[in-house]
Specification:
Blueprint: H1 3-11, H2 20-36, E1 38-43, E2 51-55, E3 66-71, E4 81-84, E5 90-94, E6 97-98, E7 108-115, E8 118-121, H3 125-137, H4 155-158, E9 164-166, E10 169-171, E11 180-183, E12 191-194, E13 206-211, E14 221-224, E15 229-234, E16 237-238, E17 248-254, E18 259-261, H5 267-304, E19 315-318, E20 324-327, E21 333-339, E22 345-350, E23 361-367, E24 369-371, E25 374-376, E26 379-381, E27 390-394, E28 399-407, E29 413-418
Parallel strand pairs: 1-3, 2-4, 5-8, 11-13, 12-14, 15-18
Antiparallel strand pairs: 1-2, 3-7, 4-5, 5-6, 7-8, 9-10, 13-17, 14-15, 15-16, 17-18, 19-29, 20-21, 21-28, 22-27, 22-29, 23-26, 23-28, 24-25
Length: 420
């Protein structure tokens, strides 16, 4: 009952026994009930129309009013609006977003409530989508979705009805396959044989073989699963004898002509190097002992050698630039200081001219130090060994310098050290 209808009854006198207060209370109740009612109305707008027109006589727009709208044609337009009873076109939203195009299907009834300037969908449209999907799925058969029957076979699986060769192994899904075998052929027999179920010889085929015996034969071959004897190569040449050792495991790949060793067959090389290393260490030890013996002999010879024989030996020459000349305390003479090693063999040559035969020439060993033409500490004079020009001698164990004195403002002095 609307307000208008209730007031009409009062006017006609059918409810005149009610007081004014009672009438007002009844009017308030009608307002409250009226606000909670949900209007049912029909939308006949076309599905491509953005503005949906709905006829509902007596409908009044206010916040919270509900309406159940039956859509005759559904909707395919974006950002639709709805105008009920000419109260204004307001957007229709779902979860505060414009209602997705195509989501309203033909002959659907959609409940909406007016709030904050728009019509808001009540509930979850996922329920409607689930209902639609359920209707589509209902009655479908496995063939409708491309499913295989219970005993069916996929097209891709049918490809394996014929065995395929993978890495030389025949694979059909019925048995396990491994590229592995054991060779028990005697080491001295060149034709090696290996059993490997399912193996087929093809370019690129691979096999890993454990050899029970070291190969000692030249130009060995390998026959896997009776597919034919093919030469075994290593780095482009027939595998050398001894490179395949007992209990060793090796991988080979067939290149269409021969078996090629994969990786590096280094065990034989390592053993050869170990053997050479042992021999080399023994040689070094022997050389060391010989050197020690030779040093002892040389030491004895140096003790006994005569100075007169030094001229036939090898010497290191001290260049003129390394010999320092200083003023001598002897008038018109020069003296030379040469740094030498103690306990070493030296030769000094003084070039004395004919007109100096009566003049002084001397060579001294200086222990400790000498400085600026003066020497302090022990001085040991040396004697000539070859005429009056050549001095050959072994230095004292305390010797540090040679003092060479000669008449003449300019003269040549040669100093040599014996090479040992």
């Amino acid at each position: 009952m609307t307000k208008t209808e209730y007031l009409q009854l009062i006017k006609e006198g059918e409810d005149d026994f009610y007081s004014i207060e009672t009438v007002n209370r009844n009017l308030d109740k009608i307002d409250s009930m009226f606000g909670k009612l949900a209007w049912f109305c029909v939308c006949g707008s076309r599905k491509m129309d953005v503005n949906k027109i709905v006829d509902a006589e007596g409908f009044q727009l206010f916040s919270g009013v509900r309406a159940i709208v039956y859509f005759t044609w559904g909707n395919t337009a974006e950002n639709i609006t709805m105008n009920i009873n000419g109260t204004g076109a307001y957007p229709v939203k779902y979860k505060n977003e414009p209602l997705p195009a195509g989501f309203i299907q033909a002959e659907w009834a959609l409940e909406v409530v007016y709030h904050a300037g728009c019509w808001r969908v009540v509930g979850d449209l996922a329920d409607k989508r689930a209902q639609e999907l359920a209707e589509r799925i209902d009655g479908m058969t496995p063939s409708d979705i491309g499913a295989l029957p219970a005993s069916g076979n996929a097209v891709s699986a049918s490809k394996w009805n014929t065995a395929r060769k993978i890495n030389g192994m025949s694979i059909d899904g019925t048995v396990d396959r491994t590229n592995y075998g054991v060779c028990s052929t005697s080491g001295s027999t060149a034709a090696k044989t290996v059993s490997c179920a399912g193996f087929n010889l093809a370019t690129g085929a691979e096999i890993t073989v454990k050899f029970n015996n070291t190969n000692t034969a030249s130009n060995p071959t390998l026959n896997v699963n009776g597919t034919g004897a093919k030469a075994i190569y290593y780095k482009g040449v027939p595998v050398p004898s001894g490179y395949i050792v007992a209990n060793g495991m090796y991988t080979f790949r067939y290149n269409g002509t021969q078996w090629e060793g994969v990786g590096d067959l280094c065990q034989k090389q390592v053993e050869a190097l170990d053997s050479e290393n042992v021999s080399l260490r023994a040689d070094i030890q022997n050389i060391g002992r010989e050197i020690k013996g030779l040093n002892a002999v040389i030491s004895v010879l140096l003790e006994k050698i005569e100075f007169s024989s030094y001229n036939s030996m090898l010497w290191n020459y001290y260049g003129a630039d390394s010999i320092r000349k200083e003023e001598s305390s002897i008038p018109l003479a020069k003296c030379v200081f040469v740094y030498v090693e103690s306990n070493a063999v030296y030769k000094v040559v003084t070039h004395k001219t004919g007109d100096e035969t009566d003049r002084t020439h001397a060579v001294y060993e200086v222990m400790d130090s000498c400085n600026n033409g003066e020497y302090a500490a022990t001085v040991k004079p040396l004697s000539w060994t070859e005429g009056d020009n050549i001095f050959a001698f072994r230095t004292h164990w305390q010797t540090k310098y040679l003092l060479i004195n000669s008449i003449g403002s300019d003269f040549d002095i040669e100093v040599y050290k014996l090479k040992i």
